[in-house]
Amino acid sequence: MSDPTSRPARTSPNYDLYQRDIFKAGSYGVLSSFSTDPDKLESLAKEKLSERGWLYASSNAGLSLTHQSNRRSFSSYSILPRMLVPTLTRDISTTLFGHRIPAPICFAPIGVNAIYHPDGELAVAKVAGELGLPYCLSTASSKAVEDVAAANAAGGPKFFQLYLPHNWELAESLLRRAWNSGFDVCIMTVDTDHLAWRHGDLAQANYAFYYGIGNEMGWSDPVFRKYLEEKGIDPKTDPRTAGRAWIDTIWHGKAHSWEDLPRVIRLWKDISGGRPFLLKGIQHPSDALLALDHGCDGIVVSNHAGRQVDGAVGSLEVLPEIVDAVKGRMTVLFDSGIRTGADVFKALALGADAVLVGRLWIYGLSIQGEHGVRHVIKSLLAEFDILMDVAGYKSLKDVDRKALRVSGLTKL
């Protein structure tokens, strides 16, 4: 809140000044477009979206027990504030895969963004570029990879999330397009060879791809277009059949195994000149070690935000075990359940190198498009920056397990 002209220089942006800007605008009668309180944000998104859009954003596996576990896991840890620490020059920047980024926060890969707003992934990628934060594009994108890259033109690292097709020629085409468009990290999701039983989606037969939404990555791909032509399927006149063909190619019918991993890693490394390859969906220390043994450069500790395995552990619950297992030999990102600046802090303290945020920006996109995404993410950045200040942590290197207690009783 201090006057920005009288504060010492920092090596990371003054994200906290967004709070000052909001208060200043309010003093002239201009209030924020909407509250970023996570519960209110979720409620407003529900009001704005169609029934199908809301179901796609909110449906979890089974009884949502894993989704609930994610939140309980965060509540199990308490932050230990430190006082009289000179934090005005704090630094929350970090380095990820050779990219210097201003904060340890990335945009999680989420598909079918056009179901939330017509601009879809283009709006999200644009904001990520403006902020210089890593943006991860889903294979299930509703926009072509080339168009998303153009929207991200302001800068920032770009990662590509891969659903490995059952056709290796198509896999190579997708990866080459991503690399040629400036996406230099590949994150392969491994927990979604079959959709979980999601009651809400099933009740409304809410599967966007079968309605012709979220298939643009395939429909814009030369290899897949050739396949459609051979089958006599035209996406323009028969989007439902074309949509089924696409999603059946990248998801359904065959689960991948650890035996497939060396080939896809080699393919990506050859295309990209050796750039990082990660697995997303790791929830067990043994799987983390298998990923390491198979040549992965990193993992994303994630349970798909509770959308795949009902009754599973919360991602934060297993994060320390996984970090201890890999012993700094690979990058560990964290996903599933991040809602606040305190959540970011706790995940970093337990060993994550950075976090991925998803549903928050979905809600912002749903409420107000590009502006909504910008407001949500700038608010999260400000909240985390301010928390580092008031909790007395000057640098990310100071945020470790000593900064937390379990249930307010046990020191880690």
TrEMBL record:
GO molecular function: FMN binding; oxidoreductase activity
Swiss-Prot/TrEMBL cofactor(s): FMN
Keywords: Flavoprotein, FMN, Oxidoreductase
Family matches, as Pfam families: FMN_dh (PF01070)
Residue ranges constituting the FMN hydroxy acid dehydrogenase domain according to the UniProt record: 30-409
Amino-acid positions noted as binding FMN in the UniProt annotation, renumbered to this chain: 109-111, 138, 161, 189, 280, 302, 335-339, 358-359
Positions that bind glyoxylate: 56, 163, 198, 304, 307
List of catalytic residues: 304
Matching InterPro entries: Aldolase_TIM, Alpha-hydoxy_acid_DH_FMN, FMN-dep_DH, FMN_HAD
Family: Belongs to the FMN-dependent alpha-hydroxy acid dehydrogenase family.
Official protein name in the record: FMN-dependent alpha-hydroxy acid dehydrogenase
